[in-house]
Write a structure and sequence with these properties.
With 443 residues, this protein is of the alpha/beta class. The chain has 13 helices and 17 strands. Among the domains are: 158 residues, NADH-ubiquinone oxidoreductase 51kDa subunit (Rossmann fold), CATH 3.40.50; 70 residues, no CATH class. The chain is 27% helix and 20% strand.
Length: 443
C-alpha cells in the first residue's frame, strides 16, 4: 500500500499536460528586470548602478541579513535602470533592469555538462557556497536555504527529506528535472546530507510519475543512504508537514518546525541548485518553469533566466489564446493571478498557467449548511467554515485561538466547498490580521 498523510486532502484533476515535454532552453530576452526581493526575509542591497556593465552570474544585490539572499545577474549587458517595478504579486518592488548585449559568463562558473560526482568541500564550505549562490527553496516558499540548513543549538537532524511530489495540478518542472538531471539531484542531496551530518535521505515522489520514480530508484544504489519512495497521489502532499507524515509517520507540532521532530525538507529543484552552486560554482540565476494551459498550442517546460518577462514564456509556448482570461503564477491551487504578463520570472516561479474564460470565473455562492466537507478536506485539522465567519466578523483574536496560523493556504477547503464560498480568501485575510496583532504584542 502506498504511503500518504492521513488527515484531509483532495484530488483535483491533474492536467499534467507538459509531463512528456523535455526541458527547453528559452532564448535570451532583449531585457530582464530582476527584483531584489525574491525570497522570504529582508530584500537584498543593490550593488550596481545605472550604466554598469554586468556578466552572467555577477552579484548585483547582496543579502542584507541572515534571513535574506544574494541576487545575481542572469544575463550580460548594461544596467538600464534601478526602480520599483510591478512583480507577480501585484506590487511595485525595486528591480534592476539590464539590457542584454551578449552572453558573457563569470569565468569561475563551470559550464561543462560533465557530472561532477566527487565531493571535496566540507560542510562549512558547502554552506558558504549555498549562501553565496543565493539559493532559496524552489518548491515555492523561497525560504533562504542556508537558514534552513543552519540547525539550531539543541536540535538534531535524523533524516533529510527530499520533496519530489509536485502535487499541484498542471506543474511538471520538478518531474522533468528528476528525469533529466537525476544524477545531479542525487549529488545535491549528498551535499545537503554532509551539511546536516545525516546518513539517511528519503525522496518522496507521487505515483503519477512512474518514470521519475523508476529513474531515481535505478540510480539510487550509486548514492549511499538515499532511498526513493512512491507515494499515493493526494493533494497537498507536497506540504512539508504532510510529506513528513507520509514518509516517517511523525507530526510537526502546531507552531513548530520540521527540525523539532528531527527532519529537514528540501525540494528536488533546490537539491539541483545546490549541486550547481557547490560543484559548478554557479549561482541561482535560472530555473525550470512549466508554461501550460488547456488551450495553449505548446505546453512546455523551459529553462528560464531570472527576470525574463512572463510574456516571452507564453509566446514560446504558442502565444496567448484568444479566449484567455487569467494567467496564474504557480499552480491552480496555491498560485496567484498576475495583473500584467510582462512581470518577471523570479526564483519562486515554478509555473505559468493560462486559463480560458470558462474556467476563470468564480461560481455563484450559496448558503453554508455546515456540511463539514471543508473540515474533512483540511490537512491541518482546522474548521474553515468557522474561520471564514470569524474573519468576516473581524474576530481576529479568536482566530488565533482557532489555530488560523497553522493554515498552509492549500485551498483544499475552497475546492471542496459545495456552496462555492471564498474560504481561503477570508482565511488569508484573517491570518494577515492575526500576524499584525502578534507583531504589535511583541513591540
Amino acid at each position: 500500500m502506498l504511503r500518504t498523510f492521513a488527515k484531509g486532502g483532495v484530488h483535483p484533476p491533474e492536467n499534467k499536460l507538459s509531463a512528456d515535454k523535455p526541458i527547453e532552453v528559452l532564448p535570451l530576452p532583449a531585457k530582464v528586470s530582476i527584483p531584489i526581493s525574491q525570497h522570504i526575509g529582508a530584500p537584498a542591497t543593490i550593488l550596481v548602478a545605472k550604466g554598469d556593465r554586468v556578466r552572467v552570474g555577477q552579484l548585483i544585490a547582496q543579502s542584507s541579513g541572515f534571513v535574506s539572499a544574494n541576487i545575481h545577474s542572469s544575463v550580460s549587458g548594461v544596467v538600464d535602470s534601478i526602480e520599483p517595478l510591478l512583480d507577480s504579486s501585484g506590487y511595485k518592488r525595486p528591480a534592476v533592469t539590464i539590457v542584454v548585449d551578449g552572453d558573457e559568463w563569470e569565468p569561475a562558473i563551470d559550464r561543462s555538462p560533465v557530472l561532477k560526482r566527487e565531493i571535496s568541500t566540507d560542510a562549512e564550505g558547502i554552506i558558504k557556497k549555498i549562501t553565496d549562490a543565493g539559493i532559496v527553496g524552489l518548491g515555492g516558499a523561497t525560504f533562504p536555504s542556508h537558514v534552513k540548513l543552519s540547525v539550531p543549538a539543541g536540535k538534531k537532524v535524523e533524516v533529510l527529506i527530499i520533496n519530489g511530489v509536485e502535487c499541484e495540478p498542471y506543474l511538471t518542472s520538478d518531474h522533468r528535472l528528476m528525469l533529466e538531471k537525476g544524477h545531479e539531484i542525487m549529488v545535491g542531496i549528498q551535499l545537503l546530507m554532509r551539511v546536516l551530518g545525516v546518513d539517511k535521505a528519503m525522496v518522496g515522489i507521487e505515483n503519477n510519475k512512474p518514470d521519475a520514480i523508476k529513474h531515481l530508484t535505478d540510480i539510487s544504489p550509486e548514492y549511499k543512504g538515499i532511498t526513493v519512495h512512491a507515494l499515493k497521489v493526494k493533494y497537498p502532499q507536497g506540504g512539508e508537514k504532510q510529506l513528513i507524515k507520509a514518509l516517517i509517520n511523525r507530526e510537526v507540532p502546531s507552531g513548530g518546525l520540521p527540525i523539532d521532530i528531527g527532519a529537514v525538507v528540501h525540494n528536488v529543484g533546490t537539491a539541483y541548485a545546490v549541486y550547481e552552486a557547490v560543484q559548478k560554482n554557479k549561482p541561482l540565476f535560472e530555473r525550470v518553469v512549466t508554461v501550460t494551459g488547456k488551450n495553449l498550442a505548446k505546453p512546455s517546460n523551459f529553462m528560464v533566466r531570472i527576470g525574463t518577462p512572463v510574456a516571452e514564456l507564453i509566446a514560446a509556448a504558442g502565444g496567448l489564446p484568444e479566449d484567455s482570461a487569467k494567467v496564474v503564477n504557480g499552480g491552480p491551487m496555491m498560485g496567484k493571478a498576475v495583473s500584467d504578463i510582462n512581470v518577471p520570472v523570479t526564483k519562486g516561479t515554478s509555473g505559468i498557467i493560462v486559463f480560458p474564460a470558462a474556467e476563470s470565473k468564480r461560481k455563484a455562492e450559496s448558503v453554508c449548511i455546515r456540511c463539514a466537507k471543508c473540515v474533512t478536506a483540511c490537512p491541518m485539522g482546522l474548521e474553515p467554515y468557522l474561520l471564514i465567519r470569524m474573519s468576516q466578523r473581524m474576530m481576529f483574536d479568536r482566530m488565533e485561538g482557532e489555530r488560523v496560523l497553522d493554515c498552509m493556504e492549500c485551498g483544499s477547503c475552497s475546492f471542496e466547498c459545495p456552496a462555492n464560498l471564498p474560504l481561503l480568501d477570508y482565511i488569508r485575510l484573517g491570518k494577515a490580521e492575526v500576524n499584525k496583532i502578534i507583531r504589535a504584542r511583541k513591540n
